[in-house]
Every structure is written in structure tokens, then in C-alpha cells.
Amino acid sequence: MQPQISRNESAADDLQDLAALWSVGEVGAYEIVEAACAALVVGLDSPTLRILAGCTRAEADYEMPDLLPAVLDELDRVFYPQDVDVEARQDAAVRALARQLLTGKLTPRELALRIHQRFSHQLPLAVRLAELDDAYDSAAYETGDEARTLAEIDANVIAEAQRLAGPRRD
């Protein structure tokens, strides 16, 4: 049995995942601000988190990039700067997207497509998902029991997402 993760830990993990996604252009700055607000609502708190949560939509693009590293540091989470260790930043984003599938925010097809579009077959950690996106495309042209084939591909994507998601603390 897995230990129960607290709402505060979950909110901090969600912020770290969104930071990884932001660092590769998958989410916008205001989504980080909204997650900061949600974190405060569940009881997570830090001085810079409060400042970040107070940013307006217009301020988010300018303020969030300076505030986010400090927020993650205060929450004892990892921040991957955009100009350092590209592969580690991309790996963190892949893992964050895999967790989105496992929490129902993405379908298997959406996960495979987003990974393939963002990273192609170039990122070693994500190659299997890019290949599965190719399999979805191929299944559309095959004759026979396409529903079974698509269900098999979905199952493979879910299994790969489970492997990738791993422990939340990077």
C-alpha cells in the first residue's frame, strides 16, 4: 500500500510539474499563477507563493519567471532553468505529462501526440511514446479490428505513463 500524500505535498508536486511543463512551453505563466492560488487554498504557504498567487493575468508573464524558482526552493522542489540541462528539463516535462494522463487530464492518444509533437523521437525517455503515437496513425489505415488495436495502443501508452511517472519528487 502506498503512503497517502498530503494535500500540501500534492499541491507542491503539481506546482513542480507545471514548472517543468512551462519550461518547455507546454503551459503558460498564468496556469502557474492559478496553481499557486489553488495551493494556498489547500493550505500550502510560503512568502513567495503568496506573491505569485497575487499576480494578475497581465503580470504573470513578467513576474512569474522571477518568482517561480524562489517558490519551488521554498517548497523544497526542483526547478529546471530554461538555460541549464535541457535533457533533465525535458525529462521532467515528460514525467509531468505522464502524470497528467494518470490523473485523467489527458487521454492516452493526447499524451502520445503531445510527446511526439514536442520531442519527436529525439528524447530517449520519450521515444516509446513517440512510437506509440506512430502506432495510432498506422492503426487508422489498417483494416480489421481497429477498436481492439486502438485499445491495445491505449493500454501500452498507459503502461508507459505509469513507468515514466514514478515517484513525484525529482
Describe the structure in your own words:
The protein is an all-alpha fold and about 170 residues long. It folds into 2 domains: about 70 residues, no CATH class; about 80 residues, no CATH class. The chain is about 70% helix and about 0% strand. It has 8 helices and no strands. α2 crosses α4 and α6 crosses α8. The longest helix has 20 residues. The mean pLDDT is about 90.
**Portion in beta strands:** under 5%
What class would the helix/strand composition place it in?
mainly alpha
Estimated radius of gyration: 17 Å
Q: How many DSSP H or I helices?
A: 8
Instruction: Report on the biggest sheet.
Output: none
Count of DSSP strands: 0
Helix proportion: 55-70%
Question: Could you tell me how far the N terminus lies from the C terminus, measured between alpha carbons in angstroms?
Answer: 21 Å
Mean pLDDT: 90
Please mark out the parts with pLDDT under 50 across 5 or more consecutive residues, or reply none.
none
Our count of domains comes out at 2
Helix and strand element order: HHHHHHHH
- Using the alpha-carbon principal axes, give the shape: elongated
Detail the topology: elements first, then pairings:
Elements: H1 7-23, H2 29-41, H3 47-53, H4 57-74, H5 86-102, H6 108-119, H7 127-139, H8 146-165
Helix pairs in contact: 1-2, 1-5, 2-3, 2-4, 3-4, 5-6, 5-8, 6-7, 6-8, 7-8
